[in-house]
Amino acid sequence: MENYKLPHTDFEISRLIFGCWAVVGGFNWGHQDKKDSLDAMREAFDNGITTFDTAEAYGNGASENLLAEALGDKRSDMIIASKVGPQDFLPDDVIKACERGLKNLKTDYIDLYQLHWPNPEIPLEDTMGALQKLKDDGKIRAYGVSNFGNKSLDICKESGFTISSNQMAYNLIFRAIEFSILPQCVEDNVPILCYSPIMQGLLTGKFDSAEQVPDDRARTRHFNKGRSQSRHQEEGCEALTFQTIDKIKKFAEESNVNMGNLSLAWLLAQKGVAAPIVGGRNADQVRKNLKTMEVKLTADMVNHLNEITLPLKEKLGSNADLWQTGGRVI
Ligand SMILES: NC(=O)c1ccc[n+]([C@@H]2O[C@H](COP(=O)([O-])OP(=O)(O)OC[C@H]3O[C@@H](n4cnc5c(N)ncnc54)[C@H](OP(=O)(O)O)[C@@H]3O)[C@@H](O)[C@H]2O)c1
């Protein structure tokens, strides 16, 4: 496994991060077997994935609990990234949320504590001040942000707080951050942690058409607003999405590379990307995703993937919110 040193930290993360959202099942994911979840996390750790991304929001603490159960005895050899939700951005609430996280995770420090989504109602400097206090007190080792657009990143920079990462939706069929957020992050030395890097399974080729995608996963702006769980007002671009997926699938076959691995390797080849955060619901998926580290893409392959996904990138535009029509990624 390759590792990556985040700025303003004294630790390295693994270049594949295990995402601990789907392992709790429920919203977005449906039924999940607990043993499969524990096996998936242990398989990841045993094969060099040291870094785990979780959040209080994933099952109201259940994901943090599960991580402690799976790997509690490995604490000193792992990196835990967790998040505080925007409803808790008042300074006192940030501290309380962190205390709850520590309790759920059965640990006395979190390595990377991230602001889950921007909250324009609360001055960011105040929230950042609370993160700095947690760092000074040794409760967290570093802090980062998530779903932060250009304006919020500007505030971070101007106020002199040293963020170590920005976690954003980024994958071959959702390239919105390339318009202005990724360039700013590169300029400001804020590495990207990519969430939904295989587009919640779509980039493994498991769905052949929009109709096959379950409603809770078809909430994204690729799909028509008529889907039952949709929270946007857009027509979507289902035909273009599946034409693009088809082209990626064919290219993966021609290149003799598994499609999911190809998609993750493309992210690893992007300047400014520290690591994809990939979910896995069982050990077998984890083993398959780990093979990404054996894939080496040539510049021509990266360029070809850029070209075949460009029309979809242009159609979905610069709104980096996967699910809503605008305003949340600021
Ligand atoms: N900051 C944020 O706002 C935010 C938002 C979303 C996610 N995240 C983080 O990012 C992580 C990953 O994102 P994500 O879970 O949305 O999407 P993802 O990693 O793109 O997709 C994960 C899902 O794809 C399927 N899958 C995984 N490996 C597979 C394989 N080898 N073959 C076939 N299917 C496979 C599994 O679901 P099925 O088996 O059910 O198909 C799995 O749950 C989350 O766990 C979370 O930590 C953060």
Structure report:
The chain has 330 residues and is an alpha/beta fold. The chain has a single domain, classed as NADP-dependent oxidoreductase domain (TIM Barrel, Alpha-Beta Barrel). The chain contains ten helices and ten strands. The strands form two sheets. Strands 3-4-5-6-7-8-9-10 form an eight-stranded parallel beta barrel, surrounded by four helices. A two-stranded antiparallel ribbon has the order 1-2. Helix 1 links the parallel strand 3 and strand 4 (51-53). Helix 1 packs across helix 2 (62-71), helix 3 (91-105) crosses helix 4 and helix 7 runs antiparallel to helix 10. Bound molecules: NADP nicotinamide-adenine-dinucleotide phosphate. NADP nicotinamide-adenine-dinucleotide phosphate (NAP) binds at residues 19-22, 53, 116, 146-147, 167, 195-201, 204, 206, 260, 277-281, 285, 288-289. This is Oxidoreductase. InterPro entries: AKR, AKR_Detox_Biosynth, NAD(P)_OxRdtase_dom_sf, NADP_OxRdtase_dom. Keywords: Oxidoreductase. GO terms for molecular function: oxidoreductase activity. Residues 15-308 form the NADP-dependent oxidoreductase domain.
